[in-house]
């Protein structure tokens, strides 16, 4: 069976995107997060939709691998839904950050396809969170698509995923959020704990499994 044109084109676009990423922008995020850890700060990962799932994953990775205190507000479903119900969608993240006593030591890290846009009424909750971060002097980082939106305008360090095709912006941006943050958390300047499969002796592991299942 031949590979479909769509599959081939998607893989070609993925390859082109990998080669067009701004390495200096990625390193700037790494330095910012290193400084956050050095001063005892926390990272709050924020996203909407698929990017919210990425935020949860990233919070786990940076806490476990880089040893940084991290949070993703969408992991606390009870509080998040209470704030949406009582205060409204636009301020749900911002009010959570205020309740968490966000400070100048901390970093707000945005994962988003568009980066937030008030005029278009898209991801306004991210915009309000960024305003809170600026007001208290917290650092701002982001991995975003399109033109970067409000995040790119406010960020101290930001990686913009280039647009290769207008038909695959969301798919590539959300995919490359994971690629970029995995690069960042694996960087020697940040990584403090080895990941499981990188320190596992596969041959010995398979042998132990065989003995255990006999």
TrEMBL record:
SIS domain mapped to chain residues: 33-194
SUPFAM superfamilies in the record: SIS domain
Keyword annotations of the record: Isomerase
Coiled-coil spans in chain: none
Gene Ontology molecular function: any one: carbohydrate derivative binding
EC number(s) per entry: 5.3.1.28
Pfam families xrefs: SIS_2 (PF13580)
Keyword Isomerase included in the entry's annotation: yes
Biological processes per GO annotation: carbohydrate derivative metabolic process
Protein known as: D-sedoheptulose 7-phosphate isomerase
